[in-house]
Amino acid sequence: MRDVKCYQGTDIVRGCDPLVKPVGRQACDLQPCPTEPPDDSCQDQPGTNCALAIKVNLCGHWYYSKACCRSCRPPHS
Questions:
Q1: Rounded CA gap, 51 and 72, in Å?
Q2: Which of 7, 50, 66, 77 is the most exposed place for a label (fewest CB within 10 A)?
Q3: Residue of higher predicted confidence among 1 and 46
């Protein structure tokens, strides 16, 4: 979802032309995220609080999954 505003020069105007106004809401067609095999040589980045990232469940976030790759990887079965 996004906020769509129409401008005339630098001024916001009311009554956008419906033929050129982009939609404010659109369904997403998300594809599954690619999965990569765990990298046994990965190391957590120094200065990143990976223990806290695990505690507050941030391992699914792209940054922490990379910065804390060793701590966030699932246990071997």
A1: 9
A2: 77
A3: 46
